Amino acid sequence: MDTRESGPEIARALIAGIEHGGGKAVFIGIVPTPAVAYLCRTSDAAAGISISASHNPYEDNGVKIFGHDGMKIPDSDEEQIEDELRAIRRDDVMIPELKLLDDNELIERYERFLDDGVAPDALRGRKVVLDTGNGASFRIAPEVFRRAGAEVRVINDRPDGRNINDHCGAMHPEGLAKAVVEELADFGVAFDGDADRAIFVDDAGTIRDGDEIIYLWAQRLNRNGGLTNRRVVTTVMSNFGFEQQLRDDGIELCRANVGDKYVLEMMIERGAILGGEQSGHIIDLAVHTTGDGTHTALVFGELLAQAEKPFSQLRTFTKMPQLLLNEQVASKPSLDSLPKYQAALAEALAKLDGKGRILVRYSGTENKVRVMVEGPDKALVSRIAESLRDVLRDEIAAAN
Question: Which of 6, 50, 52, 54 is catalytic?
């Protein structure tokens, strides 16, 4: 589980339910979600469950379920489980007061896996700032970075059950950027609540998103002959400038739906070894079946050490202006059923004249609608995104 105050109660409920059903539950402790995936597929476990709401505020919580192969279960299985839960839900369930003890042997196995992802002393002489977001990586990430030889300063590593993701971590890397500059560090990394994603800051204090990290990683693999099929997988959110530069470099970019589960599915389907999301989920299929922020950070730190130049001087690509706006909504009606929005969308597409993209979708974990607009003119992009957001806010509110 991660560090949310509701985690232990959910863990006890799961343990009681699994054992009532004839299974054996093994509690790992506070670890990143990818630790569950790794330990599940390298043991005789039938499944693995991570208790986390990822980047959401502490009030939210949930579960991510992995099969024995270390991959998230299919949507159809999730929906069946949810239907069965709704059918049997009742109010008289008592959760037993089980004592939760960390399994230090399993935690150490995961840490050794992270160690093995880079050469011994790969980060010797490098100064790194880690923002663990008061989340699941607060103990493990600093430990493995020090084992790799780095000089480490850690911020936001005092979880209290309620401060996870609270103006810190991958969702709020501004504090990390300031700390990197103050510490004269080589780079900084911010993790989200369950540490399956990582956002980077270069030595100049500039925030570098997942697109840029994937690009530099792909370039390294391509030079070494390790980029299978000269192909990477990202999502519909990735910047068009990224796609254009990869094409110029002779690398194909394939776009999946938003969600690391869908990125992984397309990676397997298209035979890609590297994939991820702009938000910092990056999947290294050579060693893992899911995004792992700590592994990503270690491997990228090794890449920087070998580059023999500061992070801020590493060339990536020219970004096309892109704006993402989020709006809280009370419900999620089909976007096709909203005539005012559809009219506004048609008008916006006409203004872009085929020289940009508009992507509007509902969040999968929150009651929010997300509006992403991309185009050659920053001011136009801003006007279109704000207009679409306002129309959606008003039309959805009126429908309720």
Answer: 54
